[in-house]
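Journal club prep — side note

Before the paper discussion, L.F. wants everyone to see what a predicted structure for a comparable chain looks like in token form. Sequence:
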Amino acid sequence: MCLHQPEEAMKKICRWGLQYVLTVCLIFSLVACGAPTPPISLAPGGEIIQKAIALSLEQSQQQLSERLQASNPGLKITRVNVEQIEPMYIGKLAAYHFMGTYNLKVAVGDREVTQKDNDFNIYIQRQKEGKTWRWLKQVASDSETAIQWLSYLIR
């Protein structure tokens, strides 16, 4: 009988060791999955998203008009369709990454052209006081690890 006790003790130790390893793995996986993100319920509404898209278009259109020495056409955004929202923190402030489509009416002189289902991919951030939103534009960085952002007030 004494010969079997060391085997049983070894089995208990192995079982305890396996339970310990599994518990540690479970804790690490729960901590990794539970990274805090801002609530979707605090994401900006359609009007703010539409204004952010307009701001991004106006900025790129202004740069193009300056290069071509032409006047800015009138832009009107309609039918914004958000297909994906990703909440995150950027610089310790709540931000939301939106992707989807929109329709665009471009007025040049007396002509108006409509473009349908244009893709958008924008980042919008709530400011610290919670009263205003900013459109964030990713800029090229010398460092591969650090992402740099330009921030523009959405009016």
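L.F.'s comment for the group: The first strand starts at residue 74 and ends at 90. Keep this in mind when we get to the figures.
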